[in-house]
Amino acid sequence: MGEEIICEQVSLGYETGIVAEGLDFTVSSGDYLCILGENGSGKSTLVKALLGLHRAAGGNITRNFSGIGYLPQQTVVQRDFPATVREIVRSGCLGKCGMHPFYTKQERSLAEQNMQRLGIAALARRCYRNLSGGQQQRVLLARALCAADSMLLLDEPVTGLDPKAQTDLYELIARLNREGITIIMVSHDVRAAVQYASHILQIGAKKQLFFGTAEDYQKSEIGQKFLAAGGAAHE
To answer: How many domains does the chain have?
Structure first.
């Protein structure tokens, strides 16, 4: 059996109550899943549950992916982090360091390879805080790739970027997917989701509204509704 994540009747919530329930979907190796939904629908909570950082209130989540790289929503404090690009990218290897206090030759090489892969090798000695928003996201993607063996989980990765930087990042993520990286991405951008993703999961009002291929989503009543509304997945 190949690598996959399976959610079966999953409910998510906090002390204040349930935010999503009845989530049934599978992510297989090579998929590009886009998670859509209005604010407060549980998208980011779902990502944390898939990572094992948040316990599901009900149902089962089965994970048999190996290394998973995570790119959370970036905060203002993180954007002003005073470290070099190389230092930040290498820090993605920390989970693989085990007990040894220094990066191995292999880990340093992996960081260099991922900087080359994402087109930021020339920025290696630059201070992260002085980069553009698009450059910073590429750095964080390279960091996540150092932690990942086969999957990236991306939470609103284009937020705050100008339109060109958004398109560039979408194209970069699509290329990584074509190279064999499984992608799970939280987004509000319905039009980009149907353009780039292989599968769509839409959640809202505490329930699953749709799961299937991007092609079937465009044909569905819920997909046509949101696409006609201009591409913002809000209810």
So the answer is: 1
